[in-house]
Design a protein that fits this description.
Length: 471
C-alpha cells in the first residue's frame, strides 16, 4: 500500500495538482465542447446528427465503461489506471484536433471516452487513498474548489479559443494538461490494487451496446435501435444477477430510497446537461453571442453554487436531506422556465442572468443533500459502489437527455440548429423544466428526510453527481 502523505507537504501538493489536472481533462472533453458545436459544424460541414455524435460519443463510452474501469482500478492500482487513461486521452485528443471529417472526429471522441472512463474513478480515488485520513475531507475540498473554478472558467476559455483561433485548439488544450499530470504522477509512489481482478466483460459489452443503441435511435429518430438497446439493457440486468462478481451489484437496488435518489439523479442531471447545451446554442445562434460570450453566460450559476453549497451541507445536518434537495431541484426547474423566455433583443441581465442565479441557488441547495442521501441509503461497506452507481446515473441521464435535444427541437431534416431553435427552444426548455419537476416529486415522495453530516464536499456543479470515494 502507498505510504500516506500529509496534505500540507510537497507530496500532498503534487497529489492534488495531478488529480485536479486529470479532472480538468475530463471536463474539457465532456462539456467544454458545447461552445464549439456551431464552429465544428461550419468547419467540417457536419449536420445535426453528426454534431450530436461528437457530443454524445464521449459521454456514451464514459457512462458505459465507468463501473468496469472502477474494477480495473481496484485491481491494478489507481495510479496505473489513471496514467493509462490519460495516455489514451492524449492520443485521442490529438486525433480529434487533426480530424479531417466528422467520422474521424466521432471515432476519436469514442476513444476519448474510453480513456475518460479510466480517469474518472481513478483520479479522486487516488487522492482519497493517498492522503492521511485526517486530511482527506480537506484535500477533497481543495480538489473540489479548484475543479469547480476550472469548470466555471473553462467554457469561457474554450470559447475564446474558438473565437480567436480554431475549435481544434480546444482539444489541443488537453495536451499540456495531460503532460503536466503525467509528469507529476510519475513522481508519486505506486501501489498495487487491493482486490482480485474481476472483469465483467459481458456486462460491459451489454452496457455499451444498450446505451449506444438507445442514443443512436434517439439521435436518428429511429425506434428499432432504441428497442434493441433497451433489450440489451434488460439482458444486462439478467446477466448481472447470475455473474459471480458483477459490474453492477443489483442487491443495492433493494433499497427504495436508493432507487428513488438515483432515478431523481438521472432526471435532474440529465435535464441540467441538456439545458446547458440549449442555452449555449441559443446564445450563439439566436442572441448573437460569440463562443466566448456563450461560455461565460452561466458563470454566475457556478459562483452562486460555490457560495450556497457549504450552507446547504449545514442545513442537511439540521433538517435532513429530503426538503433541501426537493426545493433545490424545483428552483432549477424555475430557472429553466425563466431561461425558456429568452429571446433576441433582450439584454443579458434580462434574458440569462436571473435564470443563471436561480440555477446556481437550486444546485447549491440540491447537490449536498443528494450526495448525503445516496451515502445514507446504503450500509458503510457499500458506500464506494453506491457513489459510483450514482455518478454513473448522472452521466447516463446526461447523455440520454442531450441525445433528445434534436427531438425536442423538432430538427427533422434541418442542416443546423438555427431555425429549430427559433421555433422550439421555449417548449424544449419547458419540457426540461418538467423533467426536473419530476425529479423533485420523486425526491419529495420517496427520499427519506434523514439528518446526515456531509463528510466530503461534492464535486463540481454541472458535471456529475455523487463521486465521493470512501475507504
Amino acid at each position: 500500500m502507498t505510504a500516506q502523505v500529509a496534505l500540507r507537504s510537497r507530496g500532498g501538493a503534487a497529489l492534488v495538482a495531478a488529480t485536479v489536472l486529470a479532472s480538468m481533462v475530463g471536463f474539457v472533453d465532456a462539456y467544454m465542447i458545447n461552445v464549439a458545436v456551431p464552429a465544428i459544424g461550419e468547419s467540417l460541414g457536419a449536420g445535426v446528427s453528426e454534431l450530436q455524435w461528437v457530443l454524445t460519443g464521449y459521454l456514451i463510452t464514459v457512462a458505459s465503461l465507468l463501473l468496469l474501469a472502477g474494477a480495473l482500478a481496484d485491481h491494478f492500482g489507481f495510479k496505473r489506471v489513471l496514467i493509462a487513461g490519460l495516455l489514451v486521452m492524449l492520443v485521442a485528443s490529438v486525433a480529434c484536433a487533426a480530424a479531417p471529417n466528422p467520422g474521424v472526429l466521432i471515432a476519436a471522441r469514442l476513444v476519448q471516452g474510453a480513456g475518460g472512463a479510466l480517469v474518472v474513478p481513478s483520479s479522486l480515488a487516488l487522492l482519497n487513498g493517498s492522503l492521511r485520513r485526517q486530511d482527506r475531507a480537506r484535500g477533497i475540498g481543495v480538489w473540489a474548489g479548484l475543479s469547480t473554478l476550472g469548470t466555471t472558467l473553462g467554457p469561457y476559455g474554450g470559447g475564446w479559443l474558438v473565437d480567436h483561433a480554431s475549435w481544434r485548439w480546444m482539444f489541443l488544450v488537453n495536451v499540456p494538461l495531460i503532460l503536466l499530470a503525467l509528469l507529476v504522477l510519475w513522481r508519486l509512489p505506486s501501489a498495487p490494487g487491493s482486490r482480485p481482478l474481476s472483469v465483467d466483460v459481458a456486462g460491459a459489452l451489454l452496457a455499451v451496446v444498450g446505451l449506444s443503441g438507445v442514443i443512436f435511435g434517439l439521435t436518428e429518430s429511429r425506434w428499432l435501435p432504441v428497442l434493441l438497446g433497451l433489450a440489451a439493457l434488460v439482458a444486462l440486468v439478467v446477466i448481472e444477477r447470475r455473474v459471480r462478481r458483477p459490474m453492477l451489484r443489483l442487491s443495492l437496488f433493494r433499497s427504495r430510497p436508493f432507487d428513488a435518489i438515483n432515478a431523481a439523479t438521472a432526471l435532474f442531471y440529465g435535464a441540467i446537461a441538456a439545458a446547458s447545451y440549449l442555452v449555449v446554442l441559443l446564445c450563439q445562434l439566436r442572441l448573437g453571442y460569440g463562443a466566448a460570450g456563450s461560455g461565460a453566460a452561466l458563470i454566475p450559476e457556478s459562483v452562486v453554487f460555490l457560495v450556497v453549497s457549504p450552507l446547504a451541507g449545514a442545513l442537511v445536518a439540521r433538517i435532513g436531506t429530503r426538503w433541501p434537495m426537493a426545493a433545490g431541484i424545483l428552483l432549477v426547474a424555475l430557472a429553466f422556465a425563466w431561461l425558456s423566455a429568452a429571446r433576441p433583443g433582450q439584454s443579458y441581465g434580462e434574458a440569462i442572468l436571473p435564470g443563471a442565479l436561480l440555477w446556481g441557488l437550486g444546485l447549491g441547495l440540491a447537490v449536498a443533500p443528494l450526495t448525503a442521501g445516496v451515502l445514507a441509503a446504503v450500509g458503510d461497506s457499500d458506500l464506494g459502489e453506491a457513489s459510483a452507481i450514482n455518478d454513473a446515473a448522472s452521466r447516463v441521464g446526461g447523455v440520454v437527455l442531450i441525445a433528445l435535444v434534436p427531438l425536442l427541437l423538432g430538427v427533422g431534416g434541418a442542416e443546423d440548429f438555427t431555425a429549430p431553435l427559433a421555433a422550439r427552444y421555449q417548449p424544449a426548455m419547458l419540457v426540461l423544466a418538467g423533467v426536473t419537476v419530476a425529479a423533485a416529486v420523486l425526491t419529495a415522495v420517496f427520499v427519506p428526510s434523514r439528518r446526515v453530516t456531509v463528510a466530503h464536499p461534492p464535486p463540481s456543479p454541472r458535471t456529475h453527481a455523487c463521486a465521493v470515494p470512501t475507504s
